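Appendix B, example 12.
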Amino acid sequence: MFTRFTPQARRTVVRAGLLSRDSGRAALDEDMILLALSEDWPGRSTGVTPEAVRAELAEPGAGPGERELLATLGIDLDEIRRRIPVRRDDPAVWRLRRSRLRPLNVTLVGPAGDIPLTPRARKVIEVAMSLGAPATREDLLKGMLADGSNRSVAILHRLGVDLPRLAGELGFLRRPA
């Protein structure tokens, strides 16, 4: 499936998976795709920055992540990752795998382990793949906007993003002739 993505879009999905893994989540959800997109957002003036998205994602009462837990044992997670021979953030060593028995199950597979996609994240990926050949980072954003009820759209709204305007700029809203 990853062969149908541009290198930038693959990096974004891998980054989202790593962000999800680093935050202690069991699965990759669309809000982590938004966070990965925010790290290189096309229009910084929209207020979509990694810091702003992280603030929206912060869950009150959330426990420590794997980095903090390992630090209590005197283990430096960054040092361990530096010693791994394969760069875990290299998109070339990652792939998206669809289950043959359960075709709705999609998993991001790579050196950091298998990271299943939630149904919302899978929808983002599938919409992006249906829009372009190859799918781009903008297609990932369009995939996110395709479901107006997901958490990422709510985050963008709270950050003051004019969603209809953004969709129009992306060419996602087609006006009748």
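The chain has one domain: 2-169. The chain has a mean pLDDT of 83.
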